[in-house]
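Q&A log
Question type: sequence-to-structure
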Amino acid sequence: MFLVKKIKKGVIAAAGRGTRFLPAIKGYPKELVPILGKPNIQYLVEELIGAGIGEIAIVHRHGNSMLKRYFTPDLELENYLKKTGKENFLDSLRQIWKKAKIRFIPQSPRLPYGNATPILAAKGFIGSDPFIYLYGDDLILEKKTGGYLRHLIEIFEKYQPAIAAGAIKVPLKAVSSLSSVKYAKDKKYLHRVERVIEKPSPAQVYSNVSLIGRFVVSSKIFPILAEQKIARGELWFTDAVNTLARQNVVIAEPVLKGKWLTTGDPFRWLKANIEFGLKDKNISQELKKFLRSL
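Response status: OK
Response body:
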């Protein structure tokens, strides 16, 4: 059997406008909005590192350098923290600098808008290697950071599909704002996708299983995206997944250990803060007391 290359690379999509967070994020990327004490995107970087990924590309909006600035050491700040005995405040970032190499790739305005576009922007970084692709809005709250992503990598290595995607069951009323998966009846490949549709109307819904922003992707994605048409004004990654499901094997592996959260709008961002807060040993008890008092 053909051996899959070891997966070493991860791509994070962080090139959106984040309009639902205006005017708050007018001056900085939405991915820097904090979940408790860390920006949203740092959790994604830590998840990749936890899954054994050491080469990371963050695809950001053209002309915006703030993500790069955040992940770059600041000697003046570090000296100040050292003098004031607060060096531990940067411990989590120091771990990232130690364990991963991060590349920052501006997404050209000449490329189409859409959640598949960062892959095109990162083509030079990816080459012909399989890679991890993460949506910048999605988080996985789990006991061991990167655990689910490691499982997804194992599925990819075992079955060698075109894509191994994250999936989760959601309330039926939520499917119209996410996607809907139809599983194939296949004895060889558990959770094989027959079809998937982005943001379906009620008549188009296959099931209440939706894809989430966790994917292990083969280089087969590039010819698909090269031919894919813009739909509803965007280049949709789900449309590419659907095409590959017809031509190859695509597996949508459910999240069983961990909780999927999305931060795509202020309300769900607030819920994510609460969820993380309830798991934080330093504040969970006080937070519970506060919530019970409402």
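Response note: Residues 9-293 form a domain with the Spore Coat Polysaccharide Biosynthesis Protein SpsA; Chain A fold (CATH 3.90.550.10).
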